[in-house]
Amino acid sequence: MREPASRADFEARLRRIGDERYHDKHPFHGLLHSGGCTMDQVQAWVINRYYYQSRIPMKDAAFMSRVEDPALRRAWRSRIEDHDGTAENEGGISRWLRLAEAVNLDPEYVASTRGVLAGTRFAVDAYVRFVRDKTLLEAVASSLTELFAPKIHSERIAGLLAHYDFADDNSTAYFQNRLKEAPKDVAFGLAWVLDHADTAEKQDACAAALTFKTDVLWSQLDALHSAYVAPARIPPGAWQPGEGQLEKAA
């Protein structure tokens, strides 16, 4: 039997996964944040990323349906509210649709998920199944990509505001709010994983779960880059530039 790593060493192992594998290193984000994307490419990103955003609360609901500890359910519940919204909070999904409108996409078209790449669907649906079917510990560990999200959100806000005419406080509201919401979520999730991964085998499973989640995020961008960045190869059934645009006022 191997001894588990110390709490500090295990956390360092998890953070190394993000340093090596997080999708901030994908070339599509380099294009987006530097102003190198065409508006067609920005729209394709907004459409496909919406599918991920819309499935996050479904993933969290699947997780909570298996949790018997009321304290854990109470702590996790805010994640669904952050995305779906409440009477007092607009919610991340609505904020994302504001971004869609800002880039001249019909929010109803985006919310329909018509035209989402098959690669996006396969990756995101695999994540929902992972959280539904794996152990609670592995499910929580897979959420720890939030450790690395504040950096990419900050870079995205700055890059969009610097390079794109559509970008303003309204259209970047999703990312601005995640800068406040994600630290709360990750503080709880990281502490929970560090507390419960009390064997070497559990620590290995958590590291594998986090690696899987980085693969999910990277795969979405691979699909997007392959379809819409030169040489573009848009697969059958996927969004074609010009579809789902807002009607221009007469």
TrEMBL record:
Q: Which InterPro entries match?
A: Haem_Oase-like_multi-hlx, PqqC, PqqC-like, Thiaminase-2/PQQC
**Primary enzyme class:** oxidoreductase
The free-text function statement in the UniProt record for this protein reads: Ring cyclization and eight-electron oxidation of 3a-(2-amino-2-carboxyethyl)-4,5-dioxo-4,5,6,7,8,9-hexahydroquinoline-7,9-dicarboxylic-acid to PQQ.
Gene that encodes it? pqqC
- According to UniProt, the name of this protein is Pyrroloquinoline-quinone synthase
Q: Which reaction does it catalyse?
A: 6-(2-amino-2-carboxyethyl)-7,8-dioxo-1,2,3,4,7,8-hexahydroquinoline-2,4-dicarboxylate + 3 O2 = pyrroloquinoline quinone + 2 H2O2 + 2 H2O + H(+)
Q: Where is the Thiaminase-2/PQQC domain?
A: 12-222
What Pfam families does the database record attribute to this sequence? TENA_THI-4
One Gene Ontology term of the biological-process aspect is: pyrroloquinoline quinone biosynthetic process
- Which domain of life, per UniProt? Bacteria
List the lineage, top down.
Answer: Bacteria, Pseudomonadati, Pseudomonadota, Alphaproteobacteria, Rhodospirillales
Is tRNA processing among the key words of this record?
Answer: no
Q: Which PANTHER family match?
A: 4-AMINOBENZOATE SYNTHASE, PQQC-LIKE PROTEIN
Species of origin? Hwanghaeella grinnelliae
Q: Which family does it belong to?
A: Belongs to the PqqC family.
EC number(s) in its UniProt entry? 1.3.3.11
Q: What are the UniProt keywords, alphabetically?
A: Oxidoreductase, PQQ biosynthesis
Which GO molecular function annotations are given, in alphabetical order? Answer: pyrroloquinoline-quinone synthase activity
* Annotated pathway: Cofactor biosynthesis; pyrroloquinoline quinone biosynthesis
